[in-house]
Amino acid sequence: MIEGPRSLRAIFAERLQEQVPLAPYTSARIGGPADWLLIVRSAEELEMAVSAAWQEGIPFTLLGGGSNVLISDKGIRGLVILNRAAQVRFIEEAPLRVWAESGAGLSQVAQRAASRGYGGLEWAATVPGTIGGAVYGNAGAFGGDMAHSLLLAHLVTPQGRLSWNAQEFGYGYRTSRLKRKEVQAVVLSAELLLEPSTPQQVRQRIAAFSQRRKTTQPPGASMGSMFKNPPGDYAGRLIEAAGLKGLRVGNVEVSPIHANFFVNHGEARAADVRALIELVQERVRQTFGVELELEIELLGEW
Ligand SMILES: Cc1cc2nc3c(=O)[nH]c(=O)nc-3n(C[C@H](O)[C@H](O)[C@H](O)COP(=O)(O)OP(=O)(O)OC[C@H]3O[C@@H](n4cnc5c(N)ncnc54)[C@H](O)[C@@H]3O)c2cc1C
Fold first, then answer.
1. Does domain 88-216 have CATH number 3.40.190.290?
2. Residue 49 · residue 10 · CB < 8 Å
3. Is the CB of 82 under 6 A from ligand 1?
4. Which CATH number fits domain 6-83: 3.30.43.10, 3.40.640.10, 3.40.50.2000, 3.20.20.480?
5. Could you read off the pLDDT of 94-147 as tens digits, one per residue?
6. Is 235 within 8 Å of 260 (Cβ atoms)?
7. What is the value of pTM for the model shown?
8. Is the peptide bond before 95 cis (omega within 30 degrees of 0)?
9. Does residue 50's CB lie within 6 angstroms of at least one atom of ligand 1?
């Protein structure tokens, strides 16, 4: 373990917790402890925490909804910052938009827009995770994605603050300059474009997407899609065609409902998920000559 983060202790006192299991903070319910865990509740706190960590040279990992990561069984060394900054404000002037702190739930923001009769974020209403995670990874569904919804994101970097539009993120399919590690930055808040509509119309579109998800994706603890779709194909189709639905390592299973989802049936270990990832990659490579690339990120000490 590295030496304690002194300036963070001075700012956050006993809110800086030690040796905290991270599994409860992930959608897959998997992952060992963080050396230190700090839960921030506003964009100001998030900025203070990451700036102090950068200044002190403390390695840190930021977690939003923990819905696109696999945390190792040994856990994460250094500091984990859990982002619960969740203020949301609708800006009812042109362009119609919503400003949200980066720890706000993406689906909650979309649902709140729906109750006001604002569309544009229907695609996001069933996507787990936070605004920050979605901006980072260019989350998308049902034909929409962050690349098309983002007006402006407010970031902090080791050199200070920045505001970026969608173009500046260099978005691609489930990727960005941040995810490619081309820049070191944390999303503090974001402004997303809305369209005037009616609550009834927006809710109807969301209900249709929600229904499609229920019939095509498994319930239970998972990380969503494990692999990116290779160009011109679907990872789920390839895994299914390789006969791998239902394949298990320990308590993790390739879902019989959607082969690109791995489901934790209880107390699964990250090592089991990793072994299943490698097994699936190998079998798809052997059968189709296709290299499946992970969509999720592996975090922590492996
Ligand atoms: C059941 C299920 C269904 C899913 N369906 C979809 C889908 O339809 N479409 C889709 O795109 N994804 C889907 N996902 C994946 C996931 O919901 C998205 O990737 C989501 O955007 C991740 O957000 P998060 O807050 O959970 O990020 P986390 O998993 O907490 O973090 C992911 C990465 O983002 C970084 N990050 C988080 N917040 C910030 C920030 N504020 N600033 C900088 N970096 C940050 C983290 O450091 C980490 O590297 C699904 C997941 C599940 C479990």
1. no
2. no
3. no
4. 3.30.43.10
5. 999 999 999 999 999 999 999 999 999 999 999 999 999 999 999 999 999 999
6. yes
7. 0.97
8. yes
9. no
